[in-house]
What does this fold into?
Amino acid sequence: MQQPIDAKFTQAHSTRQEQSVGEFIRICRGEFLINRDLGIEEQQTAGLKIVAIHQGAMGCRSSAGQKVEVNSPSLILSSGQQSYQLNNQFYGQQTMKYTMIDISHEWLEQQQLSLPDVCYHPKSPKLLQLTIPPSVLAMTHQLFSCPTHASLRQLYLGAKVSEITALCLHHSLSHRDTSLIGTLRQRDIDNLHMAKDILIQEIESPPSLDELAKRLGMNTRKLTQGFRQVFGNSIYGWLQEYRLETAFQLLSMNNANISTVAYQVGYTPAHFSVAFRKRFGISPNQLKK
It folds into this structure.
């Protein structure tokens, strides 16, 4: 007899911890590896859901049709005024590590918390993918390593969840909705995506701004302004973020060498350690351990 998909998903976990924080909050963390791609339909109650993806990649689509593709380390925020459905696609042959905070609408009302417009719609669910701030990355690890006496655990976890929620919502305010772009021609948008592909392919030694503009047939002003408009960051700000996120994924693999990874993403080892700690709040060595 075939098992339900959710049972397969649960049994795939090598590690899974879950607990309630008060009456209206649930936290969970897990690690799993599946042999082949697996789709999960998840019924989500009204409220806010925060998922930190520490390792791995996945796709997620809301019942309103929004879709995101996520590479670690990353954040997924989803919310709704009513129950809604998320369709998650997990990819085979790669380890997935995550921390999840599920907050009910009752808790949001108790806190008199109004979600930012980027996370809120009165009639349909919202789905948002963001980079994960170093402070949030560090705190998600702290959720399941409470340093206080057992009698103070709920107090500690409640404060930690509130802090993570505040930082995530603050971070979401800087998000730019690229679906609102209307001032660029389709040809310009295609060129900007091509610029991103060139940066990825030549990550070890990327072209200068002038060279990149020349290869695309664009002037540098349109290239820099358009890139920020489409991708929400400057060209080399985006490249640095991509380099460090790629390094994080590579270092999550047991056989990865720190110096080799640094050169692969275009850093010298000394500069790499400084940039990595500044971005994620931990050193490459600490991540390996």
